[in-house]
Write a structure and sequence with these properties.
Elements (H helix, E strand, L loop, with lengths): L7 H20 L3 H7 L15 E10 L2 E9 L8 E9 L5 E3 L4 E2 L6 E3 L5 E5 L2 E10 L3 E9 L7 E2 L16 E4 L5 E5 L5 E5 L6 E7 L4 H4 L18 E5 L2 E8 L5 E7 L7 E7 L13 E5 L2 E8 L11 E7 L29 E2 L2 E2 L1 E3 L2 E5 L3 E5 L6 E8 L6 E8 L3 E7 L6 E7 L8 E7 L6 E10 L5 E9 L2
Antiparallel strand pairs: 1-2, 2-3, 3-4, 3-5, 4-23, 6-8, 7-8, 8-9, 9-10, 11-12, 12-13, 13-14, 15-16, 16-17, 17-18, 19-20, 20-21, 22-33, 24-27, 25-26, 27-32, 28-31, 28-33, 29-30, 29-32
The structure holds beta-L-arabinofuranose.
């Protein structure tokens, strides 16, 4: 994200929470604005990505890891201006590792614009990512990309759209049933599905339109004269026990989230209820569901417009936990600022990618073919929070792999940005932002579980790039 002073994702978060607050407070103006920013000052964990605007979350559990695929709203967008999709992962639900953009419009020779909401799934050793985009001369269509790794890179699997059935072929959701049959649902204003073949890159039979009845999808509160039901777009299809669920943005715009269920994969559908109301404070006029079970808990992913500079076209992915009711119905889920609890602790004695972040203020991420993804655009006062680190008996030293153009330091604080300072690690000027060197320092021994804040210090301008770090027991 290269407009640091002008949008929140990344740099402006820092500006509004630190610098601007001081300025605003000092001037005694605009108290309401100050109050609106307060959620970002304390223990906010939603939105879960702050370096760029992200939208349309599609989580996937593979082996031990949650992979999160998202869209990317461009800074200062005044439409759904989206050129690429992005990928993140976690094993603790609070620290998210940025894997950059393994798929973009450039992957598809036939794509024009609109890299909108997709979903990725694993089958037979490969990952299939279904994504909608505006195909040159055709309109919205759904493509399929494939990779042997969840973080890509992905390639166009068939060199043409997999689905083009009308003007509303957006928002594909994919699910493989217990008998091996895979289904792809999608659409706005219609809801359609096909049965995918086992190769996952073709389908058999017709494209089927789902009847959008009152019984199946309730009625709209807005624009009911134009559309038959509450269903809007963005379906999320899965099965739990013996019941099939479709979650979707509903109602008209602004959207809330609702769901329907069926005893079979192709309906008939029975309307359930609203699962998340229209988000009034910090919401976007769209919302978009994605749901997983992970380490014994159930999580709903969605998006809002709550980062500074955010809104309807500059959205951010969030996650909250919920429990099903005993009868399998879904309760009303409250969007929270605090987000979710860690489900495991981070081991600081193995190398950790610097782009593994619970919260950050001021930094950006970027990537190149040599180093992969790394943290960049680090200025004096910026920080990265990494949550729930298990120091066990206590670290004695710290290593950081850094490329620096300036003398500076990394202050290591525990539990908040100006909490217990366990070390100030000098960063020497290595004379180049691609000249990677591991620099080490002693830290005060500290045991137990802590959030760690890496607070960057130095003169003016960009200080260094940060690739990875670890603590040592000796
Ligand atoms: O992100 C672009 C569009 O906005 C998606 O395709 C819809 O689901 C809505 O979130």
């Amino acid at each position: 994200m290269k407009s640091p002073k002008e949008s929140c994702a990344g740099k402006r978060c820092m500006l509004v929470t630190q610098t601007s607050m001081k300025i605003i407070a000092a001037s005694g103006r605009n108290i309401l604005f100050l109050i609106a920013l307060l959620p970002f000052v304390g223990k906010a964990q939603n939105p879960i990505i702050q370096t760029v605007y992200t939208a349309d979350p599609a989580p996937m559990v593979h082996n031990d890891t949650v992979w999160l695929y998202t869209g990317h709203d461009e800074d200062k967008s005044i439409w759904f201006t989206m050129k690429e999709w992005r990928c993140y992962s976690t094993t603790d639900m609070v620290n998210w590792t940025d894997h950059g953009s393994p798929l973009s419009l450039k992957t598809f020779s036939w794509a024009g614009k609109d890299a909108w909401a997709g979903q990725c799934i694993y089958r037979n050793g490969k990952f299939y990512w279904y994504v909608p985009m505006n195909a040159k001369g055709l309109g919205m269509s759904i493509g399929v990309a494939v990779s042997s790794r969840p973080d890509g890179p992905f390639v166009d699997a068939i060199g043409k759209p997999l689905i083009h059935s009308g003007n509303g072929d957006i928002d594909p959701t994919v699910f493989i049933d217990d008998d091996g049959q895979a289904y792809l649902y999608w659409g706005n204003p219609y809801l359609k599905y096909v049965k995918l073949n086992e190769d996952m890159i073709s389908y058999s039979g017709d494209v089927i339109s789902v009847p959008l009845t009152k019984e199946g999808f309730s009625v709209r509160y807005k624009g009911a004269d134009k559309r038959p039901s509450s269903y809007e777009e963005g379906p999320w299809f899965y099965k739990r026990k013996k019941l099939y669920y479709l979650l979707y943005p509903a109602g008209g715009v602004p959207e809330h989230l609702a769901y329907s269920t069926s005893t079979g994969p192709i309906g008939p559908w029975r309307y359930g209820d609203t699962i998340m109301d229209i988000i009034k404070k910090g919401g976007a006029f769209t919302n978009h569901p994605g749901l997983i079970d992970y380490k014994g808990k159930t999580y709903l992913f969605y998006h809002n417009g709550a980062l500074p500079g955010g809104g309807g076209f500059t959205r951010s992915v969030c996650v909250d936990e919920f429990e099903y009711n005993a009868d399998g119905t879904i309760p009303r889920i409250q969007p929270t600022v605090a987000g979710v609890h860690p489900v495991s602790y981070l081991n600081p004695y193995n190398w950790v990618e610097a782009e593994t972040i619970a919260w950050e203020e001021g930094v950006e991420t970027t990537s190149d073919s040599l180093t992969g993804v790394y943290v960049t655009d680090i200025d004096n006062g910026d920080f990265i929070k990494v949550r729930s680190i298990d120091f066990k008996n206590g670290a004695k030293s710290f290593d950081a792999n850094i490329a620096s153009v300036s003398d500076g330091a990394i202050e290591i604080h525990l539990d908040n940005p100006d909490g217990n300072l366990i070390g100030t690690c000098a960063v020497k000027n290595m004379g180049g932002l691609q000249h990677w060197v591991t620099q080490s320092c002693k830290v005060k021994r500290k045991s137990g579980i802590h959030d760690v804040y890496f607070v960057f210090k130095g003169g003016g301008g960009h200080l260094f790039n940060f690739n990875r770090w670890k603590f040592d027991l000796k």
